[in-house]
C-alpha cells in the first residue's frame, strides 16, 4: 500500500455515499483515479440503471492516455458480468489501468471474486481490503441482503421519558419534535421499504411517505392479517407502491398488492422471505409494539433508533424494552435524545 491510499479510498467512500436512496438495489460505489498522487478523475454510481462509478470516473479523466499509468481506487469489486451496463472490470482492462485498489469484495453471486480474477488475469495489480470495515458499513444493506438472504432491518420508534409510545388505547400522541420528524423523513428516503403493523395503520392512519425530505419514496408494507383497514385510509390511496400482508385472498390493483400468508407458518419469516424475493434490501420498521417486540425477540434487527422525549404520559402503550448493548451513537436531535444501536 502507498502512503495516500487511505486518503483516496476515503474520498471514494464519501463519493459512494452520494448515491444513497438512488442506486438501490445496487450497492453504493465510489471511484477515484489518480496519477502520480493527484486525482485526475472521480465518480460514483448515481442512479440504478445508470453508469457505474468506474464509468463515471473514467469519463471525468480529460487525458485518457494517463489511465495507462494510473492507480484506481474503488469501494467495491468491479463487476464482471453484463447487467444493465457492461462489466466495469472489462472497461478498466480496455483502458490499460495497471493498478486497482479495492475496499470490499462483492458478495453478489454474479460477481463474487470474478471481477478481481478478471483483472489479475489481464495483468492488473490488485490490492483488496483497504478500509474494509468502513466499506461494509457503507453497504451494510447490500451485504446483509446477500449474506443473510433477508432485508436489512432498521427499527425506529419515539418514546416518552417514562417509556410510552402511544396513549392508553393506542391513540397517537405527538412525542418527538419537528427536528426528529424531519430526520425520520430523511431515513424513509434511505430505506427501500417501510413497515407498520395493523394497530399503527388503524389508529395513526399514516401515509408513510417522505414529505419533508427530497428523495425516493419507500414501498409501504402493512401487516393486516384480517384486512381490517378501512378503504378510506391513507395506506390504501394508491399514491405509492404498497404491499398488504394478510391471511385473506391476494389481489392486485394499481400500486397495491395483497400478499397471502399461511396461517400455519410463522408470520415474520414469511414476510421477510417475500421481501427477499422482491429484491427489497432494507426496511424501516416504524411500529407498532407488537411488530417491534416480535422482531427484537427473534433477533431480527440490524439497527434500532430511538427518539426519547422529555415528555411524560403517566400511562399508555409501553415502548419495547429490549435490554441490549451495541450503542452506536447517542446525540440530541432538537429537544429529543437519539439512541442508535447496531446489532453486533
From TrEMBL:
Keywords: Hydrolase, Metal-binding, Multifunctional enzyme, NADP, Oxidoreductase, Riboflavin biosynthesis, Zinc. In the C-terminal section; belongs to the HTP reductase family. It comes from Hymenobacter negativus. SUPFAM superfamilies: Cytidine deaminase-like (SSF53927), Dihydrofolate reductase-like (SSF53597). Pathway: Cofactor biosynthesis; riboflavin biosynthesis; 5-amino-6-(D-ribitylamino)uracil from GTP: step 2/4; Cofactor biosynthesis; riboflavin biosynthesis; 5-amino-6-(D-ribitylamino)uracil from GTP: step 3/4. It comes from the Bacteria. Its EC number is 3.5.4.26, 1.1.1.193. This is Riboflavin biosynthesis protein RibD. Coiled coil: none annotated. Residues 3-127 form the CMP/dCMP-type deaminase domain. PANTHER family: 2,5-DIAMINO-6-RIBOSYLAMINO-4(3H)-PYRIMIDINONE 5'-PHOSPHATE REDUCTASE, DIHYDROFOLATE REDUCTASE FAMILY PROTEIN (AFU_ORTHOLOGUE AFUA_8G06820). It catalyses: 5-amino-6-(5-phospho-D-ribitylamino)uracil + NADP(+) = 5-amino-6-(5-phospho-D-ribosylamino)uracil + NADPH + H(+); 2,5-diamino-6-hydroxy-4-(5-phosphoribosylamino)-pyrimidine + H2O + H(+) = 5-amino-6-(5-phospho-D-ribosylamino)uracil + NH4(+). InterPro entries: APOBEC/CMP_deaminase_Zn-bd, CMP_dCMP_dom, Cytidine_deaminase-like, DHFR-like_dom_sf, Eubact_RibD, RibDG_C, Riboflavin_Biosynth_HTPR. Binds 1 zinc ion. Converts 2,5-diamino-6-(ribosylamino)-4(3h)-pyrimidinone 5'-phosphate into 5-amino-6-(ribosylamino)-2,4(1h,3h)-pyrimidinedione 5'-phosphate. Its cofactor is Zn(2+). GO terms for molecular function: 5-amino-6-(5-phosphoribosylamino)uracil reductase activity; diaminohydroxyphosphoribosylaminopyrimidine deaminase activity.
Amino acid at each position: 500500500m502507498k502512503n495516500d491510499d487511505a486518503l483516496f479510498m476515503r474520498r471514494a467512500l464519501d463519493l459512494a455515499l452520494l448515491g444513497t436512496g438512488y442506486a438501490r438495489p445496487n450497492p453504493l460505489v465510489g471511484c477515484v483515479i489518480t496519477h502520480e498522487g493527484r486525482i485526475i478523475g472521480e465518480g460514483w454510481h448515481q442512479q440504478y440503471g445508470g453508469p457505474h462509478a468506474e464509468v463515471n470516473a473514467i469519463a471525468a479523466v480529460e487525458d485518457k492516455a494517463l489511465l495507462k499509468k494510473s492507480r484506481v481506487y474503488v469501494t467495491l469489486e468491479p463487476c464482471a458480468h453484463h447487467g444493465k451496463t457492461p462489466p466495469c472490470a472489462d472497461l478498466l482492462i480496455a483502458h490499460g489501468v495497471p493498478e486497482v485498489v479495492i475496499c470490499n469484495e462483492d458478495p453478489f453471486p454474479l460477481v463474487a471474486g470474478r471481477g478481481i480474477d478478471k483483472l489479475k488475469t489481464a495483468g492488473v495489480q490488485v490490492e483488496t481490503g483497504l478500509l474494509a470495515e468502513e466499506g461494509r458499513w457503507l453497504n451494510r444493506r447490500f451485504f446483509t441482503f446477500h449474506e443473510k438472504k433477508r432485508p436489512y432491518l432498521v427499527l425506529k420508534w419515539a418514546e416518552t421519558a417514562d417509556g410510552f409510545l402511544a396513549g392508553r388505547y393506542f391513540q397517537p400522541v405527538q412525542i418527538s419534535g419537528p427536528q426528529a420528524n424531519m430526520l425520520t423523513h430523511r431515513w424513509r428516503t434511505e430505506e427501500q421499504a417501510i413497515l407498520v403493523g395493523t394497530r399503527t395503520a388503524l389508529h395513526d392512519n399514516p401515509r408513510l411517505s417522505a414529505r419533508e425530505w427530497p428523495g425516493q419514496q419507500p414501498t409501504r408494507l402493512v401487516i393486516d392479517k384480517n384486512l381490517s383497514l378501512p378503504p378510506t385510509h391513507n395506506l390504501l390511496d394508491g399514491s405509492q407502491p404498497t404491499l398488504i400482508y394478510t391471511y385473506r385472498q391476494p389481489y392486485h390493483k394499481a400500486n397495491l398488492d395483497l400478499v397471502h400468508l399461511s396461517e400455519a407458518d410463522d408470520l415474520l419469516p414469511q414476510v421477510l422471505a417475500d421481501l427477499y424475493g422482491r429484491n427489497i434490501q432494507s426496511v424501516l420498521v416504524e411500529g407498532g409494539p407488537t411488530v417491534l417486540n416480535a422482531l427484537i425477540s427473534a433477533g431480527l434487527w440490524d439497527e434500532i433508533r430511538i427518539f426519547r422525549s422529555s415528555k411524560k404520559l403517566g400511562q399508555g402503550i409501553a415502548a419495547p424494552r429490549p435490554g441490549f448493548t451495541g450503542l452506536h451513537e447517542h446525540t440530541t436531535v432538537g429537544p429529543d435524545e437519539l439512541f442508535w444501536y447496531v446489532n453486533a
